[in-house]
Structures are given as structure tokens and as C-alpha cells.
Write a structure and sequence with these properties.
This protein is α/β, with parallel strands linked by helices. The protein has a domain at 43-178 and 245-329: 3-Layer(aba) Sandwich (Rossmann fold). It has helices at residues 3-36, 77-88, 114-127, 141-151, 175-180, 185-192, 194-210, 219-222, 231-251, 275-285, 301-304, 306-329; strands spanning 42-46, 49-56, 67-70, 94-97, 133-138, 156-162, 262-267, 290-294. Strands 1-2-4-3-5-6-7-8 form an 8-stranded mixed sheet, with helices on both faces. The longest helix has 34 residues, at 3-36. It starts with a helix and ends with a helix.
Length: 330
């Protein structure tokens, strides 16, 4: 056998062995992550997948307008529960959702579209008998919430968008999203290197998302962030991020159709999602909307400025109820 062929064969064997080792580590780590963060709510079958939903209700409700909380990229319903869900559930019925493909929710390949995710969420709300709700969404979920409001406006009594992604941008996305969204290569990466590498980089990544504020020391555990490192979740997350630009480019011209009470909350130090490109642009497009710019705050207002965000949600709930009352009395 020629020396060059022996060398190539040896390299192939080494690479294959390394890949098998990483795949084995990924399988074991995935099992460990799932044991530490089991499902917390109901499973609801809808067209295109199965959704994991947590329903929190106070002992006594002053009104019957639920609040639906939608998490952003790389997250799951526990992020929104830690930040807002437990607090809001003292006075409101709160529906927390693992968006399709995240946490413990499942989806078909079409579920990467925010429009398809919005339709699945609408069907899930029908399952619970919820005809109207205030929708609160963080980051990437802003595209999902606005898709729901545009395509099913009678469903959405009000919108609260926190550091949302809504408009086209020019800076691209991180390399690992593009890589993971590629056929074959992306799946190999997700099933071998993504989880071990993601585990190492988790702390710095969380710190960057919270900056300039400091993330709580127990955030990753309480918000079950490691769930996104599982191969299926990692692929779904990458697919969503990689396809988001095309979706918001098409959807953005429709924002003037939004008629429900709408509040946008963002931090002026957000380096993850530009406040100017997304939040301020929506406020300029929707005349009746309210823009809350939090000084010195980064991408996680719902965690670091919880009281201000809860106040804004309560205000939108009140506006929605007043509008509902006006319609009833006419």
C-alpha cells in the first residue's frame, strides 16, 4: 500500500474514532441533561408536532384574559417562568410554551418558520379553550408573536415584545448556526461536537447575553438552558436563526396592520438585537405602540428589569380589557 494511502487511511480512522467518541459523549450527556430537566407541564398534539405547555393560574383570577409567554432563541419555557411566569401568575392565568423544536416540544421540518410556529401556538390555545390572550415574547419569539398577531388578530388582545427581532439586519448570524443548518454536515456537528463545545462555552455565552448586567449564578440550571445543547434542539435552534432574516424581510412591511395595544421594551445597551433596527423601527411603524427604552440594560430586560417589564405587561392587559369592554358595551 502506498505511503500516502496509508496516511489517508490512518487519518480517516483517527477522525472516525474521534467522531464516535464525541457521539458517545453527546448521547450520555443528553441523557443526563434530560434527567436534570424533565418535562414540567402538559403535552398537546397539534398539526405539525407535539407541544409542551405549562399552565399557571392563581387561586383567584380578577380577569379572564390569559398571558402567554414565548421564549427566544436557545431557550425554553423555564427562562420565561423564572423571569416573569411565577410573578405574573399571582394575578393572571399564565401559559408558558416550549416553542416547537425547543425544550420538550417537537415539530416537523416546516416548524422552523415563525409563521408555522404561530399557527401551532394558536391551535394549542384552542386546545385550552383560550380565544384571546396577551402575548409576551422575547427576542426571536418577537417574530413569532407578530406573525400570530398578523395572521390571527382576533386571538391577540395585546402584544408585549421584549428585545424583539422584527426587521431585516445586515450583520449575518454566528457561524455555528449556518453550519448546523446545512444538510448532513450540520447533523454530524450537532451529534458530535456541539454539545461538548457548547458545555464549555455556556458560561461565557450567558454572560454575553446578559451584558452589561451579570447573569444570576444559578441561571443556567433554573432556566434549563442546557436543553438546547441536545442535538435535535440544537438543530432546531440553528434552523430558526438561519431562516429568520428571510422571514422578517417578508413580514416587516405588514407591521402597520397591527391594531392591538402593543408595547416594545428594549435596553439601550443591547448588543445581541439592535434596539434601533428592531424596536424603534416598529414603534415608528405602529403609531399607537409604546416604546420603553431601558437605560443601561442589555438583551435580558425580563430578568434584570423584571418590575418594569411586569408593569408594562399589566398596562397592556388593562388596555386590552378596556378595549374588550368597549366592544361589549357597543
Amino acid at each position: 500500500m502506498p505511503l500516502s494511502l496509508k496516511f489517508i487511511l490512518a487519518v480517516f480512522v483517527i477522525v472516525a474514532a474521534f467522531g464516535a467518541l464525541m457521539a458517545g459523549i453527546t448521547v450520555a450527556a443528553t441523557s443526563s441533561i434530560e434527567r436534570r430537566h424533565p418535562p414540567a407541564g402538559w403535552f398537546v398534539n397539534v398539526k405539525g408536532g407535539r407541544m409542551h405547555v405549562l399552565n399557571l393560574s392563581p387561586t383567584e383570577r380578577a380577569e379572564d384574559l390569559p398571558v402567554v409567554l414565548l421564549h427566544g432563541a436557545s431557550g425554553n419555557l423555564q427562562d420565561m417562568r423564572v423571569a416573569l411566569g411565577d410573578t405574573l401568575s399571582r394575578n393572571h392565568r399564565v401559559i408558558l410554551v416550549d416553542r416547537p423544536g425547543y425544550g420538550w416540544s417537537e415539530r416537523s421540518p416546516e416548524g422552523s418558520s415563525p409563521g408555522r410556529q404561530a399557527a401551532m401556538i394558536s391551535e394549542m390555545l384552542d386546545y385550552f379553550g383560550i380565544k384571546r390572550a396577551v402575548i409576551v415574547a422575547h427576542s426571536l419569539a418577537g417574530a413569532v408573536a407578530t406573525a400570530l398577531a398578523l395572521d390571527d388578530p382576533s386571538r391577540v388582545a395585546g402584544l408585549v415584545l421584549i428585545a424583539p427581532v422584527l426587521h431585516p439586519w445586515s450583520t449575518g448570524v454566528a457561524w455555528y448556526y449556518s453550519l448546523t443548518s446545512m444538510p448532513v454536515i450540520g447533523s454530524l456537528f450537532a451529534h458530535t461536537l456541539a454539545l461538548p463545545a457548547g458545555t464549555v462555552l455556556l458560561g461565557p455565552t450567558i454572560a454575553a447575553v446578559f451584558a452589561p448586567q451579570v447573569a444570576p449564578a444559578d441561571y443556567a440550571q433554573r432556566a434549563a438552558i442546557r436543553l438546547v445543547l441536545r442535538p435535535k434542539n440544537f438543530i432546531a435552534n440553528a434552523s430558526d436563526v438561519a431562516g429568520l432574516l428571510e422571514f422578517v424581510t417578508v413580514q416587516a412591511p405588514r407591521y402597520s396592520e397591527l391594531k392591538m395595544p402593543t408595547t416594545v421594551i428594549t435596553g439601550d445597551r443591547d448588543t445581541i438585537v439592535s434596539p434601533r433596527i428592531h424596536s424603534r423601527a416598529l414603534a415608528d411603524t405602529v403609531p399607537h405602540s409604546k416604546l420603553i427604552m431601558l437605560e443601561g440594560v442589555g438583551h435580558m430586560p425580563h430578568h434584570v428589569a423584571r418590575d418594569r417589564v411586569v408593569e408594562a405587561i399589566e398596562d397592556v392587559v388593562t388596555q386590552a380589557l378596556d378595549a374588550q369592554g368597549d366592544k361589549v358595551t357597543r
